[in-house]
Design goal:
Layout lengths: L2 H20 L3 H24 L6 H9 L3 H5 L5 H19 L2 H82 L4 H32 L8 E4 H18 L3 E4 L8 E4 L1 H17 L6 E9 L2 E8 L40 H11 L3 E5 L11 E8 L7 H8 L13 E2 L1
Parallel strand pairs: 2-4
Antiparallel strand pairs: 1-3, 2-8, 4-5, 5-7, 6-7
Helix pairs in contact: 1-2, 1-5, 3-6, 5-6, 6-7, 7-10, 8-9, 9-10
Bound molecules: adenosine-5'-diphosphate.
Length: 417
Amino acid sequence: MTIDDALNTIHRPWVSRNTLTLAQGEELRKNFEELLEQFFDRIAQSVHSGNPANMDDLLREWVMARTQSDLEAHRTSLPSILNHMHLVTYQVARENLPGPGALALLEALMPVFSHCFEYAAHLEIEENIRHISRQLEHANKNLQRLDKSKSDFIAIAAHELKTPLTLIEGYSSMIRDSSQLGSDRNNIEVLLNGIENGANRLRHIIDDMIDVSLIDNNLLSLNFQPLWLNRLFFVLRDEFIDVIEDRSMRLEVVDFPGCDEMTFGDNERLYQAFRNLFSNAIKFTPDGGKITVDGRKLPGFFEITLSDTGIGIDPRDHSVIFEKFGRVGNTSLHSSGKTKFKGGGPGLGLSITRGIIEAHGGSIWVESSGYNEMMCPGSTFHVLLPIRSTPHDPKLAKLFALDVDQSTAPPSESAEA
Ligand code: ADP
């Protein structure tokens, strides 16, 4: 029996046994069968030519076909597949060929398989090194970005803290001077207000820093209470109404279906989260622009949208802005201010907002076609907030069980400021 005859005899059983044992599922088997046919042809060519390097390009193709997730999970290692095929070769030769024929075939295949093992191991090591280098490069880029955002933060925080501090120092020395000059009480009152404003700003920045660290360390605790979204937005509208008028803007709070239904959430924290979105919408929209709060009720969730007609956000920054210190653009153009056009902050607001929304089991994202101060394409922030019919705390649930029938608030007004 020639080697060719022996190869022809084991061809079919070799392909079908390998297909059955290596591939699961109809579709995968069909694809795999084709690959095995190619592999078997190459084995035959290598035996004929006496050159096992005939296998190389096929092996290279197989190693390259491994996906990123295969690499991460260390799946489908080629040497182990080759090992399996080698074993099947031995089994089908023994079952289908007479003893001397099987021995002669295995002897002829030995150099081909050992070359395949060696070459596949070499290729996989190369590919794994490339994969690890890519991961290192990625980690390195992240570290560089973190480093940059930390130094940006130091610059911004220093500026943010220094401004109110300078105010406090200035007003204090004016009080000292005016008391020496015997200034009247009204004058002193004005100066004291200045000190109070500076202290408030300092407190606000420090509170934001504390919140970020609570969120980072998963220590943000929520106090679930009954809550009505329409009431929350009306209180916010009242807070910002003067600024909106000063900047000749319009604010529309749409009375969307479900906004008057009771849900449970942390009123104070959600107020803080939406307040950040309101204040950003005002800051990044030029005078005369419009801000719209709308929403809809989805199964199990409220989706709230806050749209503005402002300068917009580059799609590349859509996730960066939710990271802490994630101010985008040029930090040297930074100017403090909660509602001034383009007035910046330390870049903590959206990361706190996201932390609060996520702590409620919700999510937040932004849509904007791009950043353009001339065209003002605007931005829309979407918030998904789970609808909760009971608070976490069973005692509170019992307390509010009495009121469950009245779970809707009084009729709400649709408002445009
Ligand atoms: P900041 O303290 O700078 O306001 P935030 O975390 O609230 O920090 O926002 C991060 C950055 O996201 C802002 O500096 C701004 O560049 C961008 N941004 C947030 N909201 C808007 C918006 N409505 N329109 C345009 N840009 C926005």
